[in-house]
Amino acid sequence: MRDAQATRRRLLDAAAAEFAAHGIAGARVDRISADARVNKAQMYAYYGNKDGLFDAVFEDHVEQIVHAVPMTAEDLPGYATRLYDACLARPELVRLAAWARLERVPTGPLVSGTDARSAHKLGAIAAAQRAGHIDPSLAPADVLSIVTAMALTWSPAGLIHTAAPDEPESEHEGRRRALARTVRRAFAPEPESEPAAPARPAP
């Protein structure tokens, strides 16, 4: 049992690197099996085909990132900066998601079962809205989508600049501050306007 688990782990790790670098169509089973030190017949027995292997890799990475960055809806800026750090440490997840968008799911939810996966986070956001931490006029699903997109600004999916772990820490800290400040301002409840003073009677 342990040998089988270790074999699957090597396959998933080798396949993640291959898919992240080359996409689904460009990935080569020969390279994956060689890097994992597993013969192709065994790989096919576990995952069926290359598409099945990609599905397993993507599912594995989604679960890792979900558990690595717990939602703290009462502190959305903190959640966003932790997501920035998680993607900086694991850029292959963003690359895998980008390939999945390009080659698999161009529109709609990227991951099957998104509603179930997001239920806890959406519930936490709704609770934070009721508690006055987040603008209640926004749909929780939109809040989650926008915060995630903000945190991915400097990820491999970014259009302007992709952050790298070996950049100066001052660069990362500056981005964290900018991200936290922007998220805080974007989702803060609007202050209630004070009632207008009654008109003074004309003399």
Describe this structure as you would to a colleague.
It is a single chain. By secondary structure, the protein is an all-alpha fold. The protein folds into two domains: 1-56, Arc Repressor Mutant, subunit A; 69-189, Orthogonal Bundle (Tetracycline Repressor, domain 2). The protein is 67% helix and 0% strand. It is built from nine helices and no strands. It is elongated. The protein starts with a helix and ends in a 16-residue tail after the last helix.
What's this model, at a glance?
It comes from Streptomyces carminius. The chain is mostly helical and about 200 residues long.
The percentage of residues in β strands lies in under 5%
Give start-end ranges of low-pLDDT stretches. Answer: none
Number of helices, counting only DSSP H or I runs of 4 residues or more: 9
Helicity range: 55-70%
Overall CATH class of the largest domain:
Mainly Alpha
Query: What is the terminal-to-terminal distance?
Result: 93 Å
Name given to the CATH architecture of the largest domain: Orthogonal Bundle
Largest sheet: none
Shape: elongated
Secondary-structure element pattern, one letter each: HHHHHHHHH
Number of domains: 2
Number of strands: 0
Classification by helices and strands: mainly alpha
Which fold does the CATH topology of the largest domain refer to?
Tetracycline Repressor, domain 2
Mean pLDDT: 89
If you compute it from the alpha carbons, what radius of gyration comes out, rounded to the nearest whole angstrom? 22 Å
**How would you name the CATH homologous superfamily of the largest domain?**
Tetracycline Repressor, domain 2
InterPro entries: Homeodomain-like_sf, HTH-type_TetR-like_transc_reg, HTH_TetR, Sco4008_C, TAT_signal, Tet_transcr_reg_TetR-rel_C_sf
Protein name: TetR family transcriptional regulator
GO biological process, one term: regulation of DNA-templated transcription
Domain HTH tetR-type: 5-65
